[in-house]
Each structure stands twice: as C-alpha cells, then as structure tokens.
Design brief:
The complex is a heterodimer.
Chain A lengths: L1 H5 L1 E3 L23 E12 L6 E7 L5 E7 L3 H5 L13 E8 L6 E8 L5 E2 L17
Chain B lengths: L2 H19 L5 H6 L10 E5 L20 H11 L14 H5 L8 E6 L2 E6 L4 E6 L18 E7 L2 E7 L4 E2 L19 E2 L4 E9 L4 E9 L8 E9 L15 H4 L19
The chains are: A mainly beta, B alpha+beta.
Chain lengths: 137, 271
C-alpha cells in the first residue's frame, strides 16, 4: 500500500499530550495511533487558531505526497520553544503525528525533530521524552 | 486656589491617609485615589491548575444539576456543528475566560473607575466598571459575549457582578474550558439569564489571584454553583496576538475530513 510505504506506525495507544484544550475538536484524529514521517517543509503557517506544517514526503514510488500537520496555537507554541522561524521551506524534518481517521494525509502533531536534533512538541505541552523521530538525514 | 479646590485637596489627602493606614478602602475613595498595592490586581496572570506545587487547588465542576432546558442546551452545544470556536466565536463568556487557563494568560489593568481585563484567548476585552454605576435597566441592556460587568471592593475582595451575556457553553472546544474537560465531556450551557458573581482577591502578597465564581442561571441549572479558580502572577509572560480567523482551515478550507467543523446550517439555538 502506498501509505504504508511512507509511514511507520508506532506505539498504538500512545498517550496524547497535545493541545488538549484546543480550539476545535480533535476527534477527526486517531489519538490511539502515532505515525512517523520524514520529509521536507514546504510551508510553515504560524497562524491562529492553529499553526500548520506543510511537509512533502516521498511516496515510495518516485513521487511525493504533501501532508498537513496541525499544531497548537502560536501562543501555546511560543511558550514551548517555538517561534515563526523554527521551520523554513526546504528544511528536512522528522515528525510524529496522530493521523486522520479517514486516512487523508493530515495529522495532529505529537513532536517534530529538527535537523540539529531539537525536538519540539505541539505547543500545549513539551515534546514526549520517547517515541520521537530521529533527526532527519 | 479656589476655596472649593482647597477643600477637595484637603479631603483627598485625608482620604489617602486613611486608605494607606487602614485595609479596606471605601468605594468612592477607590475611584479617585492611587490604589494601594494590596488592592491593585494590575498584572499578567496565568492559571496554575496543572502545577502540582501550587499552594491552591481549583475546585472541580461537580455535575451541576441541569434543568430540562439545560439538558437540551447541553446536547445542542455538544454537536460539533454548533462549535462556536470553529467559527471563531468566543463561547464561554466571562466565566469561561476566568477559568484559570494554563495556556492563555489574562492581563488586568486597574485604573480609576475601571478594571480592564485583556484575555489572550480570542483577544477579548472586558471592562469592569468600578465607578459606581449600576447595570442598565433590562429594557436598555444589550446582550454581548462579555456581558455588562460592574465591580466594587469589599475589603480586599473585588466583587464583580455580570449580566447580559449571550448564551453559550462554558466548556468545550473553542470555548474556554471551565470544566477542564475533554472533547467527550458534556457541555455545560449557560443562558442569557446567567447572573455571574465573581469575587477576586490576591493571596500571598499578590503572588496569586483567587477568583470565586458563582453562576446563577435558573434557566439551565436547578441551583447556583460556585467554582474557585487560581492564577499565578506571571510577569515573565507577554500575552501575544490571537486573531482567530487568520487560518481557519478546519472550518473554511473545504477539508472534507473536517466536515464536522463546518458552521452550523441546521440546528436551532436553545431558548
């Protein structure tokens, strides 16, 4: 399957420490699943009510797929080590997210691993201490 | 200097001396004199509910008894399509905003005759009038999200009385989360008949702010209920901008998978 080639399912049932008091329901995300992807940032939307990371991921067939990763709000994120300059177009990142229940290429951020090894959480809480993506190659 | 002005100056000096010597400040005086530090709640505050070391604990919301209309309203607000937050509407009202959020600081500015509260969440502004005015009469009161708030001091406690709020959910996605609840918890509704009384006082020399809220809403609840929420003075935090509508992908960008977030086309607001 296409997506299975991109995505490594990890730690089913992992606890969710994300933006629990978020702006809208996160029911569309399957919080019992965490998946890991590695890709290249196309755009970092430092916006309210939530920030989004647009990341382009190889699809394993010579092409790419673009994922939309939802983060917390800038106020939450800015108090957990983020700012609008943390991610830039072209940056390689490793991500862990809770995927959409319907399988579309989007997810709720659990943690992002930057090339320098820094790991950042979704905003409402620090990044988990385990289960994060390795620094991107 | 006119005789009148001399009299005023003398009176002001006398009252100021009285204010600093004693604890409580008469209401009329609080409006015209510098505020003693123990009665000045100016500052940035952040909720402490997740801090295990905090000396004060929020009171949990123990299922307040809903009326039949309250049950209906709770079901209404539990529908994702009725989620105010997904439309960038500030559900929660002042009670929701005073819930002691650990994410969204509040900033209070106390000046003669008015305490202004800036809420980072949804960038709401609330004015608590302490100039002695009352509420407008019912036939002149316009409903609003924050309602109409008047305050006065009773000793070291600021008592704020609020009416005239739009109905909404006290908790839930996009609203301030008064129940500290998750998505699956019931929504606690309030009607435009809500009468909110808040008692605010600083503790430990101004390190903490206690807010005791009593919600009296006979349309939704069979009895009034009271919640305590605690805030820590947080000079290290600078509230930032929160313009909710700038990237409403969930509601507006045609994400089929986020259809539940779309604005309510159906459903009638509870009366």
């Amino acid at each position: 399957m296409l997506r299975r080639s991109l995505v490594i399912a990890i730690a089913a049932g992992a606890t969710f420490a994300g933006p629990a008091l978020a702006h809208h329901s996160f029911a569309m995300f399957d919080r019992t699943k965490s998946v890991m992807i590695e890709g290249t940032v196309r755009e970092f939307q430092w916006t309210n009510p939530h920030s989004w990371i647009q990341v382009v991921v190889p699809n394993g067939k010579g092409g790419t797929a673009e994922w939309s990763i939802e983060c917390g709000s800038p106020n939450m994120m800015s108090r957990q080590g983020w700012n609008s300059h943390v991610l830039n177009p072209g940056d390689k990142v490793g991500l862990v997210m809770h995927p959409m229940r319907d399988g579309s290429p989007a997810g709720s951020l659990v943690s992002v691993t930057l090339k320098d090894g820094r790991v950042l959480g979704p905003g409402g809480a620090p990044a988990p201490t385990t289960g994060n993506a390795p620094p991107p190659k | 200097m006119s005789a009148l002005r001399k009299t005023r100056c003398a009176l002001a000096a006398l009252l100021a001396a009285a204010a600093f010597a004693g604890g409580a400040v008469p209401k009329a005086l609080a409006q015209s004199q510098p505020t003693p530090a123990n009665l000045d709640i100016t500052g940035v505050w952040i909720g402490i509910r997740d801090d295990p070391k905090a000396p004060y604990k929020n009171t949990p919301l123990k299922d307040p008894p809903l009326t039949a209309a309250g049950l209906k309203a709770s079901a209404y607000w539990n529908e994702p399509r009725n989620n105010l937050g997904a439309r960038c509407l500030p559900g929660g009202g002042p009670a929701g905003q005073m819930n002691g959020s650990t994410f969204f600081p509040i900033e209070t500015i106390q000046k003669n005759g008015q305490i202004t509260i800036l809420y980072e969440l949804m960038q709401q502004v609330r004015r608590v009038f302490t100039d002695g005015r009352g509420h407008p009469p019912a036939n002149e009161l316009d409903e609003s999200w924050m309602g109409h708030s008047i305050g006065h001091w009773e000793g070291d406690t600021l008592v704020v009385d609020t009416i005239g709020m739009h109905q909404g959910p006290l908790n839930g996605s996009g609203a301030a989360v008064i129940a500290q609840s998750g998505d699956s918890d019931p929504r606690w509704p309030y009607s435009n008949k809500l009468h909110l009384t808040e008692r605010l006082r600083m503790l430990d020399g101004g390190k903490y702010l206690e807010t005791t809220m009593t919600l009296d809403d006979p349309a939704m609840y069979t009895r009034p209920f009271t919640l305590k929420r605690y805030w820590r003075r947080a000079p290290e935090l600078t509230p930032i901008e929160y313009v909710c509508a700038e990237n409403q992908r969930s509601a507006d960008e045609g994400y089929a998978h986020l259809v539940e977030e779309k604005p309510a086309a159906a459903g009638t607001k509870p009366k």
